[in-house]
Amino acid sequence: MADRTPLVIDTDPGIDDALAILLALASPEVDLQLVTTVHGNVELAQVTENALRVLHLAGRSDVPVAAGAAGPLVHPLPERAGHVHGAAGLGGVELPPSPVPVDPRPAVVALAELLLAHEPGTVTVAPIGPLTNLALLLHVFPEAAARIGRVVWMGGSATRGGNVTAAAEFNAWADPEAAAAVLGSGLPVTMVGLDVTLPTVLTQAGIERFRGAGTVGAAAAGFLRQYVDAARDRYGIDGVCVHDALALTEAIVPGTLGTVRREVVVGTTLGAARGQTLVDRRTVAEHGVAVAETVDSEAAVEFLVSRVCSYGD
Ligand code: BDR
Ligand code: CA
């Protein structure tokens, strides 16, 4: 196999975040070298603890976890997403604690050091939460940020409206100023938004396949239960939208999703349009954000299920 792509996941676990981390670790195409955490679904201390525990579950406590921003760049969040992910972020499932402590470095320092240690253009960064850490990296270590090969972000929405407000997807809404900075930075960003994640539903049948696949699969089936309940209430579907895992699929196998380069503006006013990602679909923008517009949802779900099932015991 060709060289594995060095990968960093910036995350707020979060049920679909946990699944995304498990997917990356089960994928030989990528080499997960760092996990950075960010406020988002629940508080920073909790998502950091969750990231450590998910890595431990997968037997990969060797991957360092560095804690990042505890809140958005400018305006405090009015609410988080404990109602979707459970108060502690993993759907009420308590995974065994990791024997390894959190990395002492702030997330942006760990990320900058990793980027500076690799050839420019070789590292993929997959932020699957608010973009606060990446915006800070751009400001504090611009020379390191410029070395990122690809940013594959789960967030935003071009055609589907929002999921946290009528206009905004959660990760964009949770730090719109950061999203505006990153999407406008000129970095090679792929936006994996609700347009492709809402149709990509992991059904109960898929979750049942996890249950028969060893400790990791059983734990995943356990924390997905809460997500199924939230999805039923919110979208009336019997299954879950695996938002973050779909972004990771695109990070693992570039080209999984059909993307078109678009100009994207993020709403940063305090009104109803806060956090909206306004995607200009009238034209192709040569230097714009690669917006994921098409997906083979069935293939993406099968990819996820088969990879997570590959843990066995
Ligand atoms: C995004 O919001 C979070 O709740 C999920 O983890 C995902 O990253 C979906 O809008
Ligand atoms: Ca997330």
Broad shape? globular
Give the H and E element order: EHEHEHHEHHEHHEHEHHEHEEEH
Given helix and strand content, the structural type is alpha/beta
Number of domains: 1
Write out the strand line-up for the largest beta sheet, numbering strands in chain order: 3-2-1-4-5-6-11-9-10
Largest sheet: 9 strands, mixed
Keywords: Glycosidase, Hydrolase
Domain Inosine/uridine-preferring nucleoside hydrolase: 7-300
Protein name: Pyrimidine-specific ribonucleoside hydrolase
Pfam families: IU_nuc_hydro
Can you offer a commentary on this structure?
With 313 residues, the chain is α/β, with parallel strands linked by helices. The protein has a single domain, classed as Inosine-uridine Nucleoside N-ribohydrolase, Chain A, CATH 3.90.245.10. Helix content is 39%, strand content 19%. The chain has a nine-stranded mixed β-sheet with strand order 3-2-1-4-5-6-11-9-10, sandwiched between helices. The two termini are 25 Å apart. The mean pLDDT is 95.
List keywords for this structure.
Ribo_hydro-like; glycosidase; Pyrimidine-specific ribonucleoside hydrolase; binds calcium ion; binds beta-D-ribofuranose; purine nucleosidase activity; 313 residues; Inosine-uridine Nucleoside N-ribohydrolase, Chain A; single chain
